[in-house]
Structures are given as structure tokens and as C-alpha cells.
Amino acid sequence: MTTRLLLVDDHAVVRSGLRMLLSSQRDMEIVGEAGTAAEALKAVEEVKPDVILMDIGLPDKSGIEATREIKGRFPNVAVVALTIHEDEEYFFKMLDAGASGYVPKRAAPEELLSAIQVAAAGEVYLYPSLAKLLVRDYLSVDHPADEKGGLDGLTDRESEVLTHLAEGSSNDEIAKSLVISPKTVERHRENIMKKLNLHSRAELVRYAIRKGIIKA
Question: pLDDT by residue (tens digit) across 79-127?
């Protein structure tokens, strides 16, 4: 299956470099480019990409605002931030806006390709050094001692699926590990997010750390 990509960056030379890298991948197709947030929104409507590579520093509005607007109108389109910014402010704002990945421009090409594949599969990719910020952010907040323990009404199977999700496993990997179908995993995932009132992988990871399911 081919992943349809939209490149959003206000520097033509950056888009050219990305085009050279990604065009060589048999399972990826570049279906559009944009240099502004406005152009990106129009392109999403016209070319219907699976994954958008989004720069944060766009000239008309930030990639964060563009991501929030795109996700609001096209929730099934995955957005991967590809940016020079590696500080916490941009990282958390992009996650909150609905990004499915965050990759610094200094990353190796293999990291970007992995991020695209993970996002296309409906999962979340966080560059390793930035994923640590997520854990540190959680640990910097005081939480009641009694938050660890019970899993808020989850069944044993849902608890198993939650553990795998928090550790970064894909639906297919979880299905293989638990000997169930990917559709069953997705159903458990939906139930978990609903029961726990979680809306993103970032929130799920925070919850798992709080409950002692995974170690920070």
C-alpha cells in the first residue's frame, strides 16, 4: 500500500531535498507541496494525503495552528512535524494540536522514514530525545500517591493492550503478541481511551507512568 504524502515547508530547497529522499521509496508517493498554511489546507482538500510533513515556522500562521485546523477538518490525516525546533514548548504544542509524530530536521533519513510509516499506520512516533521530554514533563508534576494501582475499570485484556500501547507497540504487534486480531486490538483501544477519557498517545503514556504500568 502506498502512503500519500504532502510536504509543507516554506523553503523550496527543503522540499526539494525531501522530494529526492521520499521519491525513492516504493511505498511512498508525494502528492503535493505547500509553502504556507493556507496552501496546505487547500492541498489537503484537493489531494487527500495520508501523511503531512509539517514545518512549524510557516509565514502566514504556525504549523501548530495549521495542524490543529487540519486535524479538526480532516481527523484521519496524520501530521508529522519536521522542524528545527527541539524545545519543549513547540514539542508539546504540536502533540496537543494532534500531531502523530515529531522529528527534528537534523535526524537521520531513516528516522523520518520510520516516522512516516508509523504515522501512516495510525500510531505515534516520537524522536527518542524528545520522548524523554514527555516523561520528564509528567514526573515534574505532583500526583497523589493513591493514583497507582487500580486501572479505572479496565478488564484484564484491556490492561494488557494498554501496556503494549504505552510501550509503543503497533496494533499488529499487539495482535500477534496476544494472539487476537488487529480489529479486536482496535476495539480494545477505543474502549480504553473512552473509559480513561484519554485523547492521544501522549496522554496514554502519562497515564501508564502514573499507574506504574511502564517505567519512566
Answer: 999 989 877 778 878 887 888 888 999 989 999 999 999 889 887 787 7
How many whole angstroms separate alpha carbon 139 and alpha carbon 212? Answer: 12
One-letter identity of residue 158: E
Assess if residue 174 is contained within a domain. Answer: yes
Residues 111, 125: Cα–Cα separation, whole Å: 9
Task: Give the residue carrying C-alpha cell 522542524.
Answer: 83
pLDDT in tens, 72-88: 899 889 999 998 987 77
- My answer on whether 31 and 85 are in the same domain is yes
Decide if 135 is inside a domain: no
CATH number at residue 24: 3.40.50.2300
Domain with 9 in it = 3-129
Q: Model-level pTM greater than 0.85?
A: no
Tell me the three state secondary structure of residue 102: strand
DSSP 216: -
Q: Are 141 and 159 in contact (CB under 8 A)?
A: no
Shared domain check, 91 and 14: yes
If asked whether residues 125 and 148 sit together in one domain, one would say no
- Grid look-up 524545545 returns 87
